[in-house]
């Protein structure tokens, strides 16, 4: 996805933050003004809020924003205050921030800015599935508690500290009424809860459009936006005249099907930058030629086989069809797992070890049977192969292929997809190694698979299998 925040726009933003520019927003030459956020000028209340964010919190009292979080917020405010008045296309923004980079805190800081500086009192926070929704709920519920996102990061300046009591949360629940939308500051829900195809969805959307004042829309995991009904709801909100700002957040805006959200990217903080800054662990990304695999899925109920681009993701999302309905077809499943095994063997060699044959006795049908496996011998560390599958049944299929066809011993564990938000509806593998150096443990994650997700994240936990040594 193209980053719109470059060239003259980026230069103007940098000068605005540094306080060194001489030209005004109209393009005419003006007198230089000392201090940041003065030229081009913004309202005093906006500048005061920006200065509040720029000040490091007293040690131990509050948690400071990471530099990239502060930069993302400043870019959003810059485009809203100075770019949008000249070009309405800057109303819908996208922040591309690596998983684990603190997108939720960025969202909360932008909400606080809109509340303090523009008296926006209603915020719609959209999530693609229940797992993401529950994570957001944890961050935003009970705003007055000391560890809420508002208090932990001191997002409201002292003179507006009482606003935290007003930032109440309402979570859209199946079968529940819409009354909570009117009274809450933040409404959190899955996008299908606004679909007009259901009576409850139509009621929820009607309350937002007809009974709330100005609103700001925050679209988390926005790579899921690329679906006709999803776009339809976002367009209705935008065209209502009530939406003052829309912010999409995702770590993977570029999907496997080539689509991306219809918003302007203003921030790109990726894996390389996060490793440099110590935000995430060292990551090794491997992208094999996935085009050699014709990725197809099989409907477990009808036996129908469809290509990845033909799977009805919109229907799955709208009707909350269980993720167990689809499994990866046998041929692409084996092809991807063969790639995974090769990567694991490369990592074993990199660790200074070698792959050897081993045998283990197991009971099959009440009788003892010897089975041969490939395992690691020697090496400075032991790589672990993780496989993230589309569903529980898909994961057991992967387990069978790994053990019976590829000769790798596995064990079972459950991991919620919120830990792997980009690893959805496609078998993915990861080689993880632990290194001991100077008595400090460092974990390196080697992701194998194309970047981006072709679909909606399932709302169930997924099975992960790791090679056991």
Which key terms come to mind for this protein?
single chain, 2 domains, alpha/beta, globular, 32% helix, 18 strands, Rossmann fold
Going by CATH, the homologous superfamily of the largest domain would be: P-loop containing nucleotide triphosphate hydrolases
Shape: globular
Which bin fits the share of residues in helices? 25-40%
Numbering strands along the chain, what is their spatial order in the largest sheet? 3-4-2-5-6-1-7
Class by alpha and beta content: alpha/beta
Q: Total number of helical segments?
A: 13
Largest pleated sheet: 7 strands, parallel
Would you kindly provide a written description of the structure presented here, covering whatever features stand out?
This protein is an alpha/beta fold and 469 residues long. It folds into 2 domains: 7-273, Rossmann fold (3-Layer(aba) Sandwich); 285-467, no CATH class. Helix content is 32%, strand content 24%. The protein contains 13 helices and 18 strands. It has a 7-stranded parallel β-sheet, with helices on both faces. The protein has a 6-stranded mixed β-sheet with strand order 8-17-16-14-18-15. α3 (67-83) packs parallel to α4 (103-118) and α12 (330-350) crosses α13 (392-405). The longest helix has 21 residues, at 330-350. Mean pLDDT is 78; it is low at 21-32 and 413-469.
Q: Can you describe this structure in just a few lines?
A:
The protein is of the alpha/beta class and 469 residues long. It has 13 helices and 18 strands.
How are the SSEs ordered, and which strands pair?
Blueprint lengths: L6 H12 L25 H11 L12 H17 L8 E6 L5 H16 L3 E6 L2 H11 L8 H4 L16 E3 L7 H5 L2 E5 L8 H13 L3 E6 L7 H12 L3 E8 L13 E6 L1 H6 L6 E4 L9 E4 L5 E3 L5 H7 L6 E3 L1 H21 L3 E11 L2 E11 L6 E5 L3 H14 L4 E6 L12 E10 L2 E9 L13 E6 L2
Parallel strand pairs: 1-6, 1-7, 2-4, 2-5, 3-4, 5-6, 8-17
Antiparallel strand pairs: 9-10, 9-11, 12-13, 14-16, 14-18, 15-18, 16-17
